[in-house]
Amino acid sequence: MIWLGLALAHDLAPGAIAVEERRPQHYAVRVTAPRDGGSPVDMRLRWPEGCVFGQQLHCPEGLAGRLEVPDLEHRRVKVVLSITHLDGHQDLAVLREGQHAVELRPDGIHPPTPTPFALLGLGAQHVLSGLDHVFVVLALTLIARRWTLVGAVTGFTVGHSLSLAVSALGGLSVPMAATELLIAASVLLLAREILRPAWTSGAPVVVSGLIGLVHGLGLAAGFTTLGLAPEARAMGLLLFNLGIELGQLLVVVLALLALAVFPPNRRLAAYALGLPAGLWTVARAWTWVHAL
């Protein structure tokens, strides 16, 4: 249970592989390791056949073929791959959870960077694949009632949409360790509110909106890994956020159906949400302190 909770929380520290052609067939390589559960992931690279890596990457026949990162095969992390050519043209791709290889071709990287419209599904997947966001929606469903639930979920939506947009398009930067810690603490707070409502009983929309602001910073980290071209970011952000709302709505509907069939045990629900959130909070606080 402990390791399951830690593993399914969103990873907010994606990695990067930046390749820049400095002279014909010679490339400078910069690697930033992603974090999985707070620990950096090894990034051993297997370059296409014929390429030799020393102080720089040398590919006499050109940078073409299969690039593999074996350590990513069973990891829940994302890595952005960028290749900048001598003429300034840049190829981008994202290795998503579990993906560990791409094919480098003269016409670009395959699979390529997702089109903006593919972000609708990616937004929903981002919500449903991590427990932290799902736990907030479940907690709000248990805490609020009827139209109060509509207001609480709306406040959460407005909050995370605002901070997601400002972070992704406006360049707002918050230390990743602090964001992760605040997200975990917000889930822990809502778990307590299930048992003894305090802040949410008086102003659920305000509380959920503030929590949404925090979660939007984490969602922005997921969006920025996608490497969209500047001209596609606004539409991509809109569709990514719409996908998030669809995934969030699905969680609310399923939760309400479950509550209609099975009367909730609030104490059990509070501990089921609060225990993993407490573990995340402790683990991320430890990471944050060591990052200072």
Give me a quick take on this structure.
The protein has 292 residues and is α+β, with helices and mostly antiparallel strands. 53% of the residues lie in helices and 16% in strands. The chain contains 9 helices and 11 strands.
Q: Secondary-structure map with pairings?
A:
Elements: H1 2-8, E1 15-23, E2 26-32, E3 35-36, E4 39-40, E5 52-53, E6 57-58, E7 65-68, E8 79-84, E9 90-95, E10 101-105, E11 108-110, H2 119-128, H3 131-143, H4 147-170, H5 176-195, H6 199-202, H7 204-224, H8 233-261, H9 266-291
Parallel strand pairs: 1-8
Antiparallel strand pairs: 1-2, 2-6, 3-4, 5-6, 7-10, 8-9, 10-11
Helix pairs in contact: 2-8, 3-5, 3-8, 3-9, 4-7, 4-8, 5-7, 5-9
Task: Give an account of the 3D structure.
With 292 residues, the protein is α+β, with helices and mostly antiparallel strands. The protein has two domains: 12-110, no CATH class; 116-291, no CATH class. The protein contains nine helices and eleven strands. It has helices at residues 2-8, 119-128, 131-143, 147-170, 176-195, 199-202, 204-224, 233-261, 266-291; strands at residues 15-23, 26-32, 35-36, 39-40, 52-53, 57-58, 65-68, 79-84, 90-95, 101-105, 108-110. It has a six-stranded mixed β-sheet with strand order 5-6-2-1-8-9, with no helix packed on it. A three-stranded antiparallel β-sheet has the order 7-10-11, with no helix packed on it. A two-stranded antiparallel ribbon has the order 3-4. α2 packs across α8, α3 (131-143) packs parallel to α5 and α5 runs antiparallel to α7 (204-224). The longest helix is centred in the last third of the chain and has 29 residues, at 233-261. Mean pLDDT is 84; it is low at 1-8.
